[in-house]
Structures are given as structure tokens and as C-alpha cells.
Specification:
Mean pLDDT: 81
Order of helices and strands: EEEHEEHEEEHEHEH
Low-confidence stretches: 1-42
Shape: globular
Number of helices: 5
Strand content: 15-25%
Number of domains: 1
Number of strands: 10
Largest sheet: 6 strands, antiparallel
Helix content: 25-40%
Strand order of the largest sheet: 6-7-8-5-4-10
Radius of gyration: 17 Å
Oligomer: single chain
């Protein structure tokens, strides 16, 4: 048994269970359900927040972390603002499939679920096979910025319900998730892939 223990990943993807190799330290579920407020005359769709975080994205750190979380066994793509799309079964075109995944999230209501990984980083999971990593050092170094701006991470007319049933009231985990999700929205509006991992290609190169 290695240090990174396989866990059942919390995304439901076409009936598949996604297995990762890092065990979460706690079962964080502060933001459990999201819904839209049906305001008369609201035409802003797809919904999107005002917040566009300007914290630098460490693509190499994301690449390394995703390989660790997936055991280096899944294809994945990283977008310029850090969103990761991944695939449990081999696909032929990672780029097109990743953009399509992000588009499906963006054109539905982007619910999210947090998970604390065994390296203390946060994974912000979406309803499709994609997530955003928020690193523990990123949180520490930018906490004042996250806390000040987190409500700008809500979409127009959006209501998020926490585990206590409170609307748009966020603890630290909820604020972290809104920060991570805001970066996903930026990628969805202007998708540009900056790095790809394909285990088959990596295996060939290592021989």
C-alpha cells in the first residue's frame, strides 16, 4: 500500500466512478447545492461572475499535482487559468475533448464540491470531469485578496446553499471554492490549453 491511497473521487461522470490516488484528510462539503434565482427578465446566460482573479498560475505545479492525484494514469489538459479536464478512458483528441468538457460546465449551472487532498491542497470539483486546484501556499499568500473578493465570485442571481442551509454565507472553504471556480469561468470564456499529459506518449518517451 503506497502513501497515496486510492479513493473514490466525488465526481459523477456518465455513471463512472473516478479513482484517485490521494486520500482526502476530511470530507469537506460546505457548499453542497447551488441554484439560480429566477429573476424576471434575467438574460445573462451562461451565468458568470464579475471576479477575474489575477493571481499568477503555476502551470508546472498543477501538472505535477495532477499526475500525483491520478497516479500518472489519466489523460488530462491544463487551461491557462489552471482548470484541469481529465479522462478516465482513452480519447483520441485531448484538446477538443477538454474544450468540450469546459463548455458543458459553462453552459449548465456550474455546481462545485470541495475536497481536501492529502497534501493539504484543495480540489474544486465540477459536474463534469474537471477541477481546479487551489494550493495551500496560494491560499496562505493571497488570503486577504480571496476574503475581500469572494462574493464577486457569485454569478448574477445565484444562490449557493452551505451545509447549514444558509444562502450565500461562506466559511473559509466556500471562499476558496469561489476563488477557484472564478478561474474556471475565465478559462471557459476564453479556453486556451497550455499543457497536456498523455500516459501513452509519456510511456513511449521513457523507453
Amino acid at each position: 500500500m503506497t502513501k497515496a491511497i486510492l479513493i473514490i473521487f466525488g465526481l459523477i461522470i456518465a455513471g463512472l466512478l473516478i479513482y484517485f490516488v490521494s486520500k482526502p484528510k476530511s470530507n469537506v462539503a460546505d457548499v453542497k447545492t447551488s441554484q439560480e434565482v429566477n429573476n424576471a427578465g434575467q438574460t445573462d446566460f451562461p451565468l458568470k461572475p464579475k471576479w477575474k482573479p489575477d493571481v499568477p498560475v503555476d502551470v508546472d505545479a498543477i501538472y505535477k499535482a495532477v499526475k500525483y492525484y491520478t497516479g500518472g494514469k489519466m489523460q488530462f489538459a491544463i487551461f491557462q487559468n489552471g482548470t484541469v479536464a481529465f479522462f478516465t478512458k482513452k480519447i483520441d483528441n485531448i484538446e477538443d475533448s477538454s474544450v468540450a468538457t469546459l463548455s458543458r460546465i459553462y453552459n449548465a449551472h456550474p455546481d462545485f464540491k470541495p475536497m481536501v487532498m492529502d497534501d493539504d491542497n484543495y480540489l474544486v470539483q465540477y459536474s463534469e470531469p474537471a477541477f481546479t486546484i487551489v494550493f495551500r501556499d496560494e491560499i496562505k499568500n493571497n488570503w486577504d485578496y480571496i476574503e475581500k473578493n469572494h462574493l464577486e465570485g457569485l454569478c448574477n442571481g445565484e444562490v449557493l446553499i452551505n451545509a447549514k442551509g444558509e444562502q450565500n454565507v461562506f466559511d473559509s472553504v466556500g471562499k476558496i471554492c469561489l476563488y477557484g471556480r472564478a478561474k474556471m469561468f475565465m478559462d471557459a470564456q476564453a479556453p486556451r490549453i497550455v499543457k497536456i499529459f498523455n500516459p501513452a506518449v509519456a510511456s513511449l518517451r521513457s523507453k
